[in-house]
Amino acid sequence: MSANGSPAGQQPTATYDSPFLKACRREPVPHTPVWFMRQAGRSLPEYRKVRQGIPMLESCMRPELVTEITLQPVRRHGVDAAIFFSDIVVPLKAIGVDLDIKPGVGPVVERPIRTRADLAQLRDLTPDDVPYVVEAIGLLTRELGGTPLIGFAGAPFTLASYLVEGGPSRTYENAKAMMYGDPELWADLLDRLADITAAFLKVQIEAGVSAVQLFDSWAGALAPADYRRSVMAASAKVFRAVEGYGVPRIHFGVGTGELLGLMGEAGADVVGVDWRVPLDEAVRRVGPGKALQGNLDPTVLFAGRDAVEAKTREILDAAAGLEGHIFNLGHGVMPSTDPDALTRLVEYVHANTAR
Ligand code: 1CP
């Protein structure tokens, strides 16, 4: 067994024994661990301050800034894990895809991928393409002590949705047109993205992250049969590629209630669940042997302390019989969330699950 997956490896024992990694491994924990998707970012005034005047993609390429932004929510909220500050399009930018993250919009691709010739934009990724990622992870693991750092990447389908559409979409009509109309081109596109994603996760693991999350944020747009036929093999290839490291692999998507079983089957150790499926039902859909992560609706945080506590109680009750629960939101923290509501939520989960 290698590096980060074992106490004998390069990972400090305190990190290996952290509640977050124990829960990923479905071992007993002193309290249910908590972290939030998009915990670093626009909900925090200290984030807005250090990001002033620095475009999103450029900020991902400055190791000191990435370190500071990644640490901000850990300091403020006392969460049980840090998530590396970056974006799912960073590895694509790093191999030369002409794209930008536009404020108020999201990732925008200059020349969308629509034909076989367009695939030439996607070459393999090497560690030399992302030196700033390696450097930032090195700085972070020194600063974080026993708090684990989660690395991440976008899953092939979600990356393809941006590359084929050219930007954010609600319907994914161009991506789905390729999937249904030219299944060979689609399969080749997803396979290439799987290799890039696997290489990017390997870089992060070798640099020192303790777990990885594959964000297939938009996979919920797919029927299960289409997911199985046209998407699952590529995500499974990513998970297989990093299996040997022994670090927990989390698989997350939004609106994926009907896909939970398949997303587990793709090779995850932990399956992320949004707020649409209660965790006691999610565990039946995912099947045995996997931890679950989730699943408070991020909009509940706007409803006041009593409502947050009542909804959180429901989630903790639904998770009571689970082996391996990591508390999270069902999707990312919304930019206008009151940071104090997040801090109180961490305290509430810790206090109400102390064993
Ligand atoms: O200038 C800014 O602050 C831009 C906003 C922003 C931020 C803070 C974007 C643009 N990306 C990020 C950081 C980011 N992106 C993180 C690190 C922060 C953390 O988690 O604490 C992570 C994990 C991501 C991953 C990401 N980017 C996903 C998967 C997670 C999810 O929310 O589903 C996706 C889909 C993206 C694309 C993206 N990047 C940015 C935006 C606004 C979007 C979504 C656009 C759309 O609606 O399609």
TrEMBL record:
GO MF terms held by the record: uroporphyrinogen decarboxylase activity
Subcellular location: Cytoplasm
Keywords: Cytoplasm, Decarboxylase, Lyase, Porphyrin biosynthesis
Positions bound to substrate: 38-42, 87, 162, 217, 331
One GO cellular component, as annotated: cytosol
GO BP of this protein: protoporphyrinogen IX biosynthetic process
Pathway the protein takes part in: Porphyrin-containing compound metabolism; protoporphyrin-IX biosynthesis; coproporphyrinogen-III from 5-aminolevulinate: step 4/4
Domain Uroporphyrinogen decarboxylase (URO-D) residues, every copy: 33-42, 150-166
InterPro entries: UROD/MetE-like_sf, Uroporphyrinogen_deCO2ase_HemE, Uroporphyrinogen_deCOase
PROSITE patterns, alphabetized: UROD_1, UROD_2
Subunit structure: Homodimer.
Family as reported in the entry's similarity comment: Belongs to the uroporphyrinogen decarboxylase family.
Function: Catalyzes the decarboxylation of four acetate groups of uroporphyrinogen-III to yield coproporphyrinogen-III.
Name of protein: Uroporphyrinogen decarboxylase
Gene source species: Streptomyces adustus
Gene name, Swiss-Prot/TrEMBL: hemE
